[in-house]
């Protein structure tokens, strides 16, 4: 794999086996970073991502961890450091998406969404605040739905809004170490998870909601995450960047 802007860096991508996380892991590796691909449910997919990176000459490792479990998160960081050295880049991509009217929303689903989307981000950010190399980067994946009032998205949007606020505050707490902390908020993005439970008409309608008239691609999101991890983004911190093609 050709050298690039992230030569010598070590990156951890949670939920890196599929969709946006997969694209981020591959893009970071293409720029020279050694990448840990975190997974929790699909080992085969994670190994596929690692093989793709290694076939291109890069370094990668698949590690299982439930980000909502503190012991798993600590072990994830320990193994990353043991294998590749100090961590430079953390991308919090792991998350769940379950939708429903607030008045009918299942309490168990509520608890699970907050456990993974919010607690998971908190636990990895807490660990990163202790272990991340000075001058490092944290990027949290949120969602454009925090800016719109979509029926059935209330609980999911609430989890992502919480992540955005954690991002802002953590940027202040880590700024003295020149660590940048930002969030990226994708709009509708063409992944298996996004299409699940939607008709083709619904997918088309959401695509037309973007000014550019299409769904995002995972690579559209990955390119922005890579940018935030490079020296070119050294003066960007505490921000939430909508990456949504002008979605309303």
Q: Helices and strands in order, then pairings?
A:
Elements: E1 10-13, H1 19-30, E2 34-39, H2 43-55, E3 60-64, H3 70-84, E4 89-92, H4 107-131, E5 137-141, H5 154-174, E6 180-186, H6 192-195, H7 200-208, H8 218-229, E7 240-243
Parallel strand pairs: 1-2, 1-4, 2-3, 4-5, 5-6, 6-7
CATH class: Alpha Beta
Backbone structural class: alpha/beta
| Tally of distinct domains | 1
CATH topology: Rossmann fold
CATH superfamily: NAD(P)-binding Rossmann-like Domain
What is the 3D shape? globular
- By DSSP, the count of extended strands is 7
Short description:
The chain is α/β, with parallel strands linked by helices and about 250 residues long. It is about 45% helix and about 15% strand.
Brief descriptors of the model:
248 residues, 8 helices, 7-stranded parallel sheet, alpha/beta, Rossmann fold, globular
